[in-house]
């Protein structure tokens, strides 16, 4: 099937089972939130999907097997991710960051010059991530929220089809959260979106489906209402300081 399919995924660090047999199916066009207490294995799951953590089991995206491939090969198959800490080039402008991500092989001098024209895919990405007005600003001067959007824009110009976003709204203002939620909805029209998030209010408003992880396994899965009503989830979460 198209979308992300994970079967019996295991990641073991020096005998410690961080991900212990996870099955996950995220159909094309979904906005899936993955939640769970600290240490549940959420980031490690994404590390395994993107080739950063060695894993066993099976992972396919749009029917391409990902496990065992190198990080850049997985990215070329349309799998994009963002990290909790921004990885943009702070000393370059928004446009230059997008240019580099788009693989416009221009020398350093050309890159530093102001662009006279902007390739259509870069322009589209600028508009989608709402950064057209700040395209000539140094990325390092952007507020946190806009840096996260720039990262998403960089994935867009790389033709990512699956967006794996690790805590995208951490540290964002209320307005930035709202705009990010809307952006996720827009992305899901043509892409598949997986979001690791601790912010329960954001989840309630923007998740289409939810997977709850606990101790390296899937504890519960369904709509927001279904997982909220699941006694197993309540047991893990009640009294746990995850409510934002
Ligand atoms: N490289 C590593 N070596 C050893 N143990 C690791 C490594 N990476 C993660 N772990 C352990 O694996 C477990 C899962 O970590 P992970 O970061 O995936 O959890 P998480 O659900 O993303 O947590 P958080 O919400 O705090 O980000 C934790 O106990 C962590 O300490």
Give a summary of the structure in a few sentences.
Pfam families: ABC_tran (PF00005), BCA_ABC_TP_C (PF12399). The protein is of the alpha/beta class.
Structure description:
The protein has a domain of 116 residues: 3-Layer(aba) Sandwich (Rossmann fold). It has 244 residues and is α/β, with parallel strands linked by helices. The strands form 2 sheets. It has a 6-stranded mixed β-sheet with strand order 6-7-8-3-9-10, sandwiched between helices. The chain has a 4-stranded antiparallel β-sheet with strand order 2-1-4-5, with helices on one face. It is built from 10 helices and 10 strands. The structure holds adenosine-5'-triphosphate (ATP). Adenosine-5'-triphosphate binds next to strand 2 and helix 1.
CATH classification class of the domain at 1-72 and 201-244: Alpha Beta
Q: Outline, from the CA principal axes?
A: globular
Proper CATH architecture of the domain at 1-72 and 201-244: 3-Layer(aba) Sandwich
List ligands, each type once.
adenosine-5'-triphosphate
C-alpha Rg, in Å? Answer: 18 Å
Q: Looking at CATH, which topology of the domain at 1-72 and 201-244 would you report?
A: Rossmann fold
SSE order in H/E notation? EEEHEEHEHHHHEHEHEEHH
What structural category arises from helix and sheet content? Answer: alpha/beta
Order of strands in the sheet with most strands: 6-7-8-3-9-10
Low-confidence stretches: none
Q: How many helical elements?
A: 10
Task: Please outline the major beta sheet.
Answer: 6 strands, mixed
| Helicity range | 25-40%
Q: In whole angstroms, how far apart are the ends?
A: 35 Å
Within CATH, the superfamily of the domain at 1-72 and 201-244 carries the name P-loop containing nucleotide triphosphate hydrolases
Mean pLDDT value: 90
Work out the strand percent.
25-35%
Number of strands: 10
């Amino acid at each position: 099937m198209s979308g992300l399919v994970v079967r019996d995924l295991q990641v073991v660090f020096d005998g410690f089972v961080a991900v212990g047999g996870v099955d996950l199916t995220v159909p094309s066009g979904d906005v899936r939130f993955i939640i769970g207490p600290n240490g549940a294995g959420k980031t490690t799951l994404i590390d395994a999907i993107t080739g950063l953590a060695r894993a066993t089991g099976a992972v396919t995206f749009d029917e391409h097997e990902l496990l065992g491939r190198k990080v850049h090969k997985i990215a070329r198959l349309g799998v994009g991710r963002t990290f909790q800490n921004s990885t943009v080039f702070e000393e370059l402008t928004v446009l230059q960051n997008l240019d580099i991500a788009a693989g416009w092989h221009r020398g350093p001098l050309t890159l530093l010059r102001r662009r006279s024209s902007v390739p259509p895919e870069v322009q589209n990405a600028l508009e989608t991530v709402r950064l057209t007005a700040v395209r000539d600003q140094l990325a390092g001067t952007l507020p946190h929220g806009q840096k996260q959007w720039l990262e998403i824009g960089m994935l867009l110009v790389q033709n990512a089809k699956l967006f794996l976003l690790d805590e995208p709204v951490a540290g964002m203002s209320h307005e930035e959260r709202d705009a990010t939620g809307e952006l996720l909805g827009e992305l899901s029209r043509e892409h598949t979106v997986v979001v690791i998030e601790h912010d329960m209010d954001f989840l309630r408003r923007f998740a289409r489906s939810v997977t709850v992880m606990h101790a390296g396994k899937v504890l519960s899965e369904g709509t927001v209402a279904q997982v909220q009503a699941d006694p197993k989830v309540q047991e893990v979460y009640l009294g746990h300081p995850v409510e934002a």
